[in-house]
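Hello,

Our lab assistant flagged a job as stuck in the queue for most of the afternoon. It eventually completed. Since we weren't sure the result was trustworthy after the delay, we are filing this so someone can double-check. Below is the sequence as submitted and the structure that was eventually returned. Let us know if re-running is recommended.
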Amino acid sequence: MKVILNVDVKSLGEEGDVKNVANGYARNFLLPRNLAVPYNEATIAIFEARKAEIEARKEQKRKDSASLKDKLEALTLEVVMPAGANGKLYGAVSAHIVAEALAKQGFEIERKRIELPGAAIKSVGGFKATIKLYEAQTAEVHVEVKAQNIEATEEKPAKPAKNRAPKAEAAAPAEEPKAEEAPAAEAAPAKTETPAAE
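-- returned structure --
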C-alpha cells in the first residue's frame, strides 16, 4: 500500500515521504495513529501545499545536526572496564555502553545509531565511534577505554576458593573417627561376653 508520512516515523521515513508498506502495517498501525495518509490525489495536493513548511523543518534538523556534530566531535568519552594485564577487557565496550556514557554527558543518542570498530571494543586504548546523525551526516566521537584496578579484580576471586577447601577437609576427618569408634567399642564387649557364658 502506498502512503504519505504525516510525521517522522522511526526506521521508515520522514514527514512528506512517499512509502510502499504492507497493507496490514498501514491499516493497523500507520493510518489509525495518523502517522500516514493514503497516497491519492487529495493527499498529494495537501502535501504540495505543505511542501515549504516541511522543507523548512528539514532545514532546521540539518542545522541542529551540524551543531550536534561539532559538540560530539569535541568530546572525549572515558569508559573504565575490568581488564587483564595484557590490556584485554573482561567483556567488551558495546554501543549500549557508549550510549550510556553519552547520556551522562547530556547527549541522548540511540544505540542503533552508534557504530564501533569491529562491532565492539575488546581492549584498552583510544578508539573512534561513528554516530549517524540526520540524513547522511555522521560524527566521530573519541572513546578512551581505561583498565579498572587490575590487581584488585584478580586477587579477590582466588581468596574465597582457598579458604573454603581446607575447612571442608578438616571438618570431614574430625567427624568420621568418632562415628567409627563408637560401633567398635560396642562390638568388643559383646564378643567377650559370649565365651564366658559357655
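-- support follow-up --
The delay was a queue issue, not a problem with the job. The result is valid. Residues 151-161, 165-198 have pLDDT under 50 and may be disordered. Strands lie at 2-5, 18-20, 36-38, 76-82, 88-93, 114-115, 121-123, 125-132, 138-148.
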